[in-house]
Amino acid sequence: MEPFVVAALVVELAAAFFLLWREKLLNSPKNLIISLLLLLLAMLLRASMFDFESGDYTSFLAPWTEFFREHGFAGLGMELGNYNPPYMYLLWLFSLIGVSELYLIKLCSVLFDILLAWACMKLLSLCTESRWKLLLCFFAVLLFPTFIINSGKWAQCDSIYSFFGIFAVYLALTDRPWLSMASMAASLAFKLQAVFIMPVFAVLLFAKKLKLRHFLAFPAAYIIYMLPAVIAGRPFAEVMTLYFSQAGTVGDALCYNSPSFASALSYVSDPAAFSRLLIAAAFVFMLLVLACAFVRREGADAALIIGFTALLVLGIPYFLPHMHDRYFYAAGAVLIVLACSDLRFFPAPLLAELASLHCYLAYFSRRYIVHPRWGGLAMLAALLIVFIYTATRKDSPEN
Question: Which one-letter DSSP state was computed for residue 324?
Answer without folding.
Answer: E
